[in-house]
TrEMBL record:
InterPro entries, A to Z: L-lactate/malate_DH (IPR001557), Lactate/malate_DH_C (IPR022383), Lactate/malate_DH_N (IPR001236), Lactate_DH/Glyco_Ohase_4_C (IPR015955), Malate_DH_type2 (IPR010945), NAD(P)-bd_dom_sf (IPR036291)
Entry-linked PANTHER family: MALATE DEHYDROGENASE
Keyword terms of this UniProt record: NAD, Oxidoreductase, Tricarboxylic acid cycle
A single GO molecular function term of this UniProt record: L-malate dehydrogenase (NAD+) activity
Binding of NAD(+), residues: G13, A14, A15, G16, Q17, I18, C19, N107, Q114, V131, G132, N133
Annotated positions binding substrate: R94, R100, N133, R164
Source organism per UniProt: Acidimangrovimonas pyrenivorans
Gene from which the chain derives: mdh
Name of the protein: Malate dehydrogenase
The keyword Cytoplasm appears for this protein: no
Length: 328
């Protein structure tokens, strides 16, 4: 069989802690699979170029058979040139005592500039995931500044929260993580996110019936998932990195290869379904198939769900208002 043309994968923030986990897994084949060669196109700030070159030395020392080339640059247009996929990680992380929305003023401008470069340089069918916080609103800024690039292909990461909820639910229900389906994490990657077990099942049974403890769900599961990032910062003195990289890989892998009919959560541009205002970048359940994602639609919500949705919608609307000048 002829060797496939390498896929070009742009990654921003290449000198940072998430990329120190992410790049090695991409090069190993965890995104495109074990038969697909890749080229890494790495972006970071001018002052971080030496550190990126150090990471590249380590990539070389792994002798990954699939890694055919690595480009290092501080120019976003070079990084995104002909990209098939792009991970937007580069931006400031929060430290103790901050909320992710406090990063908006520091990080929003990055996504305006990089949106223009994406518009100019990437393939029109490139798949984009924004990891840098506040991820939903940064992705909205990116899409707004890339008017010739399909908005459907700009997504934000809420998969880490989905994975966090899966583990907590599986442990409480005494089932395997891989047996859970129809879990959804709605809204903003922030304390208002809503890990929703209403439809979640394992082995054909509702998790809410297996666990049978609504108080635990409302007062422990939902806030623990929403506050997990803070708990990690408090424990580690730095924000999540390996688990964030893993979630980014899961997000992109499933988008490319499919989610086997299962629900996964992705931040996507709202079409107005489920009462979510059009245009917000919003965590929703999707099913991935044949290189695209399909939103799960037609669900009806109870009063509790409506209240949780309203809270996270209001926060994302406030964030949109705060960056209105960058949305064109
Ligand atoms: P880090 O500080 O270790 O690395 C960030 C890197 O981005 C640095 O190398 C920095 O030089 C680079 N950078 C800054 N501005 C840039 C620009 N304009 N262009 C290119 N590169 C630039 O941070 P990290 O721990 O790797 O986290 C990165 C981001 O990911 C943070 O915003 C963090 O909050 C976020 N994050 C999101 C999730 C999620 O679930 N969505 C999870 C974890 C972390
Ligand atoms: C996380 O959820 O771990 C990341 O968004 C980092 C953070 O700031 O909490």
């Amino acid at each position: 069989m002829p060797t496939p043309t390498p896929k070009r994968i742009a990654v921003t923030g290449a000198a940072g802690q998430i990329c120190y986990a992410l790049l090695f897994r991409i090069a190993k084949g965890d995104v495109y699979g074990p038969d697909q060669p890749v080229i890494l196109q790495l972006l970071d700030l001018p002052q971080a170029q030496a550190a990126v070159r150090g990471v590249v030395m380590e990539l070389e020392d792994c002798a990954f058979p699939l890694l055919v080339d690595t480009i290092v640059t501080d120019d976003p247009t070079v990084a995104f040139r002909d990209a098939d996929a792009a991970f937007f990680v580069g931006s400031r992380p929060r430290s103790k005592g901050m909320e992710r929305r406090d990063l908006l003023s520091a990080n929003a401008e990055i996504f305006r500039v990089q949106g223009r470069a994406l518009n100019e340089a990437a393939k029109r069918d490139a798949k984009v995931v924004v990891v840098g916080n506040p991820a939903n609103t940064n992705a909205m800024i990116l899409a707004a500044n890339a008017p010739d690039f399909p908005t459907e292909n700009v997504t934000s990461m809420i998969r880490l929260d989905h994975n966090r909820a899966l583990t907590q639910l599986a442990a409480r229900a005494g089932v395997a993580v891989g047996d859970i389906d129809r879990l959804a994490v709605w809204g903003n990657h922030s304390p208002t996110m809503f890990a929703d077990w209403t439809e979640a099942v394992s082995g054909g049974r509702l998790l809410s019936e297996i666990i049978d403890d609504e108080t635990w769900y409302r007062e422990t599961l939902i806030p623990d998932v929403a506050r997990r990032g803070t708990a990690i910062i408090e424990a580690r003195g730095a924000s999540s990195a390996a688990s964030a990289a893993n979630a980014a890989i899961d997000h992109m892998h499933d988008w490319i290869h499919g989610s086997d009919g299962k629900w996964v959560s992705m931040g996507v541009h709202s079409t107005g379904a489920h009462g979510i205002p059009e245009g917000l970048m919003f965590g929703v359940p999707v099913v991935c198939k044949d290189g695209s994602y399909e939103r799960v639609e037609g669900l009806s919500f109870n009063e509790f769900q409506n209240g949780m949705m309203a809270r996270t919608i209001a926060e994302l609307e406030e964030e949109r208002e705060a960056v209105a000048a960058l949305l064109g």
